[in-house]
Write a structure and sequence with these properties.
With 85 residues, the protein is mainly alpha-helical. It has one domain. The model has no long low-confidence stretch (mean pLDDT 78).
C-alpha cells in the first residue's frame, strides 16, 4: 500500500527526473519480488504455510526498518492543542 501511494503522486516524477528513474527501478524490483514470491507460494503445496509465514515475517521486518526513524508522537502541522500527558 505504501509503495502504491508513493508512486501515485505524479508531481514527484515530473519534478526530479533523476530521482524518478531510481524510484521506477525500485518499484519494478519490488513488484517483481512480490510477484515472484506469490508465484512461489502458489507452486509450493507442502511448504506453503512455512513459506507464507516466512514471507510475512520478512515483510513485517521491512516495514519496521523503513519506519524506525518516524516521529509518531509529534503534533501535526496546524495542530495548536498540546499532547495529553
Amino acid at each position: 500500500m505504501l509503495l502504491l501511494r508513493r508512486v501515485s503522486r505524479q508531481p514527484d516524477f515530473e519534478d526530479r527526473p533523476a530521482r524518478a528513474g531510481r524510484r521506477r527501478i525500485t518499484m519494478g524490483v519490488a513488484l517483481t519480488a512480490l510477484y515472484g514470491y506469490l508465484y512461489l507460494l502458489l507452486r509450493l503445496e507442502d511448504l506453503a504455510l512455512v513459506a507464507g509465514a516466512t514471507g510475512l515475517l520478512v515483510m513485517l521486518a521491512i516495514v519496521m526498518v523503513m519506519t524506525r526513524h518516524g516521529n509518531w508522537f509529534a503534533p501535526q502541522l496546524g495542530d495548536t492543542a498540546s499532547p495529553a500527558k
